[in-house]
Amino acid sequence: FGAPPLCVGGGVGRGRGRGGQGVEPSPNGPATISIEGLSSSTTEAQLKNLLKSVGPIEMFKMIPQHRKAIARFSSPQHAASFQTSFHRHMIDLSHIDVSLIDG
């Protein structure tokens, strides 16, 4: 009975969409990501290259004492794509945890 989360025909009464542009993941979602579980040997340059492989970044901050980094992409689609591609990815023998955050 219930409609699947992604409807091809556009859900009736589901907000004020822009007519057929609901294909991309979370167009108005967070553009900021948190990367945790970094290896102590992972460098800022390595992470920036990984981030830029998905899209342009507006902000990047590495917090080595917490083995963590925060980055903001120019679009929420890039953030969602990075999270999908690199969550639980291994870098320098550490599996990183990537999560979308508001910020």
Keywords:
alpha+beta, globular, Nucleotide-bd_a/b_plait_sf, 6 strands, four-stranded antiparallel beta sheet, RNA binding, Alpha-Beta Plaits, RBD_domain_sf, RBM33, 103 residues
Concise account of the structure shown:
With 103 residues, the chain is α+β, with helices and mostly antiparallel strands. The chain has helices at 44-52, 76-86; strands at residues 32-36, 57-63, 68-73, 90-91, 94-95, 97-101. The chain has a domain at 32-101: Alpha-Beta Plaits, CATH 3.30.70.330.
Description:
The chain has 103 residues and is α+β, with helices and mostly antiparallel strands. The protein has a domain at 32-101: RRM (RNA recognition motif) domain (Alpha-Beta Plaits, 2-Layer Sandwich). The chain is 19% helix and 26% strand. It has two helices and six strands. It has a four-stranded antiparallel β-sheet with strand order 2-3-1-6, covered by helices on one side. Strands 4-5 form a two-stranded antiparallel sheet. A hairpin with a 4-residue loop joins strand 2 (57-63) and strand 3 (68-73). The longest helix has 11 residues, at 76-86. The termini are far apart. Residues 5-26 have low confidence and may be disordered.
